[in-house]
Design brief:
The protein has about 350 residues and is of the alpha/beta class. It is about 45% helix and about 15% strand. The protein is built from eleven helices and 13 strands. It has a seven-stranded mixed sheet with strand order 1-6-5-4-7-8-9, with helices on both faces. The protein has a four-stranded antiparallel sheet with strand order 10-13-11-12, covered by helices on one side. α6 links the parallel β5 and β6. The two termini are about 50 Å apart. About 25% of the residues are buried.
């Protein structure tokens, strides 16, 4: 699949979130400084005990000879022209110089091995990620809409490990990685890119692209790969919503029209606009949630529940709270209710509601 994508000139790859570490240049600089410190320590040891060393050239060991000896010793070259001959110098070589030589080699070999094994570690992480990932959420587009959708999902308890972001911009994927999300770099209208996101095993798919025609193509491709996933998409123009539903989307949100209606409502009634804005912001103030009917509520009227019920979901039918068919409640029903987040202070313009059971 990656080969086919490269043939079309579209780079695609999975980018797992990483821990914040220093850049390659900074890491190399740190290790170089450590190696120089080890070399300086060895030179100092040899220079202090220079009387116990013998130089085959002139019999004396000066500072340059000490640097030369430390260099060939730490690199395990060992020409033998400068040798420790006294018992003290040999003891110091065993106790101090040898550990410094080992440390020097560890620094050099460690840097080399890290470069060589980086790709292996990434391949192993990617394979383990693919094996363990299922029933996750794929978010196509990490702009304002995609970010807001992810924030709402995380506020309801969804873990970041269960979210995969797909976007064609590498900088956007890097931002998603920095926030702890797995990113797939590529064009989401292509099936091979969505397969990299393990979309065939996803439970729900959010399409938050910048263009409506792109959203339609993504919905068609996603529905072809996963027949059972719930697909929610956003469009700018309301006239494109039916086309997106025909393409396989279960729910379509018209972003421009929704924003316009909220603006109009805020003009007519600023307090009502504030309440509506609070409802769509998950995790603060009032929340609009869906929950199952509990046993104590079975057989009761909709108005007799502790929560403020807006609608009743019975099978595939969405019934209003004032619909006579909605009451009495059944065990298989699901309620769309308005509840107050317990850790949020109540708003002055809305009466307090009962906490979530």
């Amino acid at each position: 699949m990656a080969r086919r994508a490269e043939e079309h000139g579209v780079p695609t790859r999975v980018m797992l979130p990483r821990r914040v570490v220093d850049g390659p240049a900074r890491q190399v600089a740190k290790r170089l400084m450590m190696a120089l410190m080890v070399l300086a320590a060895t030179v100092l040891i040899v220079w202090v005990d220079r009387g116990g060393y013998h130089d085959a050239a002139d019999g004396k060991v000066d500072l340059l000879d000490a640097v030369y000896y430390a260099t060939v010793t730490l690199s395990t070259t060992g020409y033998g022209d400068i040798t420790p001959y006294s018992d003290g110098a040999r003891l110091i070589n065993v106790v101090l110089v040898t550990p410094l030589r080992v440390l020097f080699l560890i620094i050099l070999v460690g840097t080399t091995l890290e470069v060589l094994t980086e790709r292996t570690r990434e391949d192993f992480r990617l394979k383990r990620w693919r094996t363990n990932l299922r029933d996750h959420t794929v978010v196509v587009g990490f702009g304002t809409k995609g970010r807001s959708a992810i924030q709402t999902l995380c506020a309801t308890g969804l873990k970041k490990e269960q979210i995969v972001v797909v976007d064609p911009a590498s900088k956007v994927i890097e931002i998603a990685n920095a926030e702890g999300f797995t990113g797939v770099l590529g064009d989401a209208t292509r099936s091979d890119v969505l397969l990299r996101a393990e979309l065939q095993k996803a439970r729900q798919i959010i399409i938050a692209t910048q263009r409506d025609d792109t959203a339609v193509l993504v919905a068609l491709t996603a529905r072809q790969l996963n027949r059972g996933a719930k697909i929610v998409a956003a469009v700018r123009e309301e006239e494109n919503a039916p086309l997106l539903r025909q393409s396989g989307a279960d729910a379509v949100i018209t972003s421009a029209s929704a924003a316009g209606r909220l603006l109009g409502l805020s003009v007519l009634s600023p307090s009502a606009g504030t309440v509506m804005e609070d409802l769509i912001q998950q995790g603060s103030g009032l929340d609009l949630v869906e929950r199952p009917v509990i046993k104590a509520e079975v057989g009761k009227n909709v108005r007799e529940t502790d929560d403020l019920v807006v609608s009743v979901l019975r099978g595939h039918r969405l019934l209003g709270y004032d619909d006579p068919v909605a009451s009495p409640l059944q065990l298989t029903d699901r309620l769309i209710t308005i509840v107050r987040v317990t850790n949020a202070p109540p708003m002055s313009h809305t009466p307090p509601t009962a906490p979530r059971p």
